Every structure is written in C-alpha cells, then in structure tokens.
Amino acid sequence: MFTRFQYMLSLLRTDPVGGTIYILSFAAAILIALILHEWAHGFVAYRCGDPTAKMMGRLSLNPAHHLDPVGTLCMVVFGIGWAKPVPVNPRNFRNYRRDDFLVSIAGILMNLTLFLLSTALLVAIQNHVRYSAFMQYVYNFVYLLSSINLSLALFNLLPIPPLDGYHLVNDTLLKGRLQLNHQQFQVMQIILIVVCLTGVLSNLLGSLHSAIYSAVLNLFYRMIP
Q1: What's the rounded mean pLDDT across residues 140-166?
Q2: Which of 83, 87, 137, 173 is most buried, by the most CB atoms less than 10 A from its CB?
Q3: What is the pTM for the complete model shown?
C-alpha cells in the first residue's frame, strides 16, 4: 500500500540528491495536475454564467487556494487523490444539466490533455534528445506529470460522490434526479477515503492505468519517428 512512499524514503537513503529531485518533481507534477484540474472547473463554470469560483479566488493558479490536505496526502501515498472542490452555484447556470456536465468534465479533460501532451513530449525526448544527467531528471519529471494526470482523470471518472464521475452519470443517465445535500456529500467523501485506505481502488485503477498508458505510449512511438 505504501510502495511509493517507501520508494521515496529508500531513494533518499541511497541517493540523497536524486531522491530530493525526485520528490520535488513528484510534488510539482501533483501541483500542476490538481491545480489545473480545479482551475478548469472554475473557468468553465464562469463561462457558463456562474461567477462563484471567480469571486472566491478559485480562478487562480495559487496552490494554497486549491489543495486539500487529506486529498494531497492520499495522492502522495496511494497515487490517487483530490483537491478542494470548486464552489459552484448551479442556479447561475444557463442550462442546468448541460452546464453541470460541462463543468464536471472540464477537470477530467484538462488532465487527459496534460497526459497526452506530456506523453508525446516523453517520446520526443527519448527519441530526439541526447542523454545527459540533466535530461534524465527532465524525463523523469515529464513521466511523473504524464502518469499522475492519467491517474487523476481515471479517479475522477468514478461515479462516486463527490467525484466528477458522479455528476457525469447523474446528468446523463439519471437525468439529474439524484440530488445529495452537503452532509451526504461529506459522508460519501469519508467513505471514499476509507475505500482508498483499503487499497482496492489503487489496484483497480492501477491495472486500468497500465493498460491505457501502454496503449497511448505505443501509439506515440509509432507516430513520432
């Protein structure tokens, strides 16, 4: 369960400089993935007529405005996590179900876009850049950015409140009939944390992550000479 955390500690013991650079790269990749995910939610909500996120300072790239301590810790330890949900007032939407769907999928699409771009860059570096110690660190960072963004997209696709997948299923298949209040969302978040602690989600999403990552990587190897 604590494989990544143990790997970091082991790396710090055997290679303090390399371990420190790895941890900093991992932290930077997490920040980019989580912050742009939440920014995308807020930006699309604003474009759909809801200024709540903008008024509360969430259309910002400042990590302090977005990071959730528990969600970030889960991201470090288990490889799956979350940030503070962007505040949204659906009453401001021009079309409730359509706009709720667009806002919900915005973060996932942002992560998938970052995944595809960083994976393409990864293959380009491998094929066209001469190896050096510095470029190895760059390569490792791009790999982490690619892998973390795919993990975050897959995690948020799960149809479990308060994840984005819940809104996508509710807006499409359930026609918006399932409505949960704030307390119910909090209960579901606790359940989600407990499930994460069991490692069940990590195993399930890990297998899916490996399959998708390998397929996309092979596709880019064929596309980029």
Answers
A1: 91
A2: 83
A3: 0.86
